[in-house]
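Encode chain A's predicted structure.
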Amino acid sequence: YKISNSDDESISRTMPIPSDLIISVEASGNLAVVRTPPGGAQLLASSLDHSGISEIIGTIAGDDTVLVVSRKATGGAQLAKELLAYGGIKRSGRGSK
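Encoded structure for chain A:
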């Protein structure tokens, strides 16, 4: 048996974020709420967790919604802006692609 550690080269520290899963993003305080198609939240959350974006502490996923937590107390707005840009969305809010 071999126990892998974070320095193991076979483990990728970054995972591409599937931008087609981002429908809308809204921010509040240190949180960004990301809407996805039904069933897309788990994949998006895992991708964000492994994206290497240092501003993200972690995510919580439902079926079609991901809660993204920023390290900064007011970092939700900046994080939402970055996720909107990545998803090719012009403005935040529900269904605003």
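The longest strand covers residues 56-61.
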